[in-house]
Amino acid sequence: MRDDRGQLHTIEGLAAAFIIIIVLSIVVQTTSVTPLSTSFTNQHVKLELQNMGNDILSTLDQTKLVNNSDPNVPSQLKKSIIDWSVYSYYDIYTWNNTTYVSATNASYAPLNTPLSSALTYAFANNGVAFNVEVSFPDKNGHVRLSKMIWNGDPSENSVTVSRLVVLHDGDNEIPVGDRYDNFMVLPDISPGTTLHNTAYVKLTMWVM
Question: Which chain regions cross the lipid bilayer (predicted)?
């Protein structure tokens, strides 16, 4: 079931990644991230990482899926959260220099979302490590934290950026039904309304 769902989203993920690459190529080409040296102070590198992280999250949050003008279709950042929660069963994934593998079971389908594709393009081959965490309220009002991508403990020179994503019930976002309403991650906190939950996406980056 997990593999089948992953395959269903492969083509859509590749198409989304193509748009991301076009947009992020501009960001990467105008921002140089290098290891600390005599010509780059620690603060300068941290500022560059902060700018790139914010650009990635904001770009994905403002970009719709490929060839879709429907205003109800979620942004690529929102879709990344939905795909991870609903279709990848909110596993923890690690970058292995080739793809994102599940920390729970390596036989599971790799994580393939617009966000993971963007981070791969921007950071994976540029000496930058990164983690992605998602916090959200549960039905009792407690804030929960889940790791989406985890590549180890950040260094003391790490930088963190974040963005709030609002999720709704409906065919375009979270499918309506008890299975999704009672999810351990991103449960329906407002039954009877179109609001499903809110996700606080935190991206942490550091130079290796």
Answer: 12-31
- DSSP assignments along 124-171, one per residue: ITTTEEEEEEEEEE-TTS-EEEEEEE--SPPPTT-EEEEEEEEEEBST
Single pTM value for the model = 0.80
Over residues 93-105, the pLDDT tens digits come to 999 999 999 999 8
Q: Measuring CA to CA, which residue among 157, 192, 140, 163 is closest to residue 61? A: 163
Question: Can you tell me whether residue 33 is helix, strand or coil?
Answer: coil
Amino acid at 57: L
Burial tier of 3 (Cβ tally within 10 Å: 0-12, 13-18, 19+): exposed
Asked if residue 92 lies in contact with residue 103, where contact means CB atoms within 8 angstroms, the answer is yes
State pLDDT tens for residues 58-109. Answer: 999 988 765 556 667 789 999 999 999 887 878 999 999 999 999 998 888 9
